[in-house]
Amino acid sequence: MDSQHRGRLLKQNFASGLVVFLVALPLCLGIALASNAPPLAGIISGIIGGVVVGWLSSSHISVAGPAAGLSAIVLSAITELGSFELFLCAGLIAGVVQLLLGFMRAGSITNYIPIAVIEGMLAGIGILIIFKEQPYALGGVGLSAVWQDVSQIHFGAVLITLISMAIMLGWDAIPHLKKIKWLPSALVAVCVGILLNQIFIWADSGWALPRSQLVQLPVADEWQDLQQMILFPNWRGLLSPTVWTIGLTIAVVASIETLLSMEAADRLDVHRRITDTNQELRSQGVGNILASLVGGLPITAVIVRSSANVNAGATHKLSTIIHGLLLLVCVLAIPQLLNKMPLACLAAVLMLVGYRLARPQIFVHFWRKGIYQFIPFFFHDDRGGLPRSAERGGNWAGDQHSFHFARQYETSLLFEP
Q: pLDDT digit string (tens) for 210-223?
């Protein structure tokens, strides 16, 4: 590739990389929040998903990073293990399994799992995300505490949450605003939330959010500080059967989400390029191994960021790599600004993600498809036990018609930021 061609690719794809970065930044932080992981873990996954997976992948338009669809599994796993460092061992196992699946040419695995089962799992995850984010939307208190004493609500957090939701819903509903590809609604909501909280602080209002209700990224003044910020796996986790079970679960769910996202992304590619799914599994495996070694969350291909990439005019994987590099520059250069983000803003972003994963139209759709589609959709395993759900679903809806239906409809149903 000559320098003139590289320059043309950079010119064509820098703007789209910037757009994906602006979409990914609040999502990386919000997914870390929903997973009860350190905020930096989400950024690290976004960086590795963009730079490493983007470089290794055969797809020119897909974007990889932390996924809301895995947040419920990660949250449950960290809670069960009691340590994020132990969980990193599970992520490492998941990466190795994905790498092996790629070499075993298991890229067609999604052909054998009915879409009803997959959508049921994602809908359950969406509901869990909504309930998990409610305390941040209310200012650090749960609904049970609010029922007992309404005065515990932090009205500043509630106001920021409601305004953030109104901005995102209104922005996406107005065609002229939605056409502004370089300014995603989630970023606008976060910026308004920061400004609103700063106004509360300047006015010395009781509605100002305390430090505990803001993003808390570590700030590195020197190289030694940066090394201390990164969490590494607790290798004793490799001796735990629970860690291995979690790792295998993440590998299966992340692989399925990635492959479905790849299929949807290939349909969005105006050049009609087809991704090598086995190469994609290997790329995701390498990404998850690296992310786990340096304190990141599990990575999958994510269709909403990929869609934003296409809509912004991306033509090459350079766009994905640029988005990862911009995340790295952002966390190194302006962590103080990121630490002004209210958790209520991120909660609003994630609650809308949860709603879209579990929106009523999906339930109605599978109900209208009949009991043999609805039962495997409804009786899923929220804990992430997709293989068991897939086995049950295969008994109910494993016929060829179900698979054809899945391929025709999954692009419109699948929503994974």
A: 988 998 887 766 66
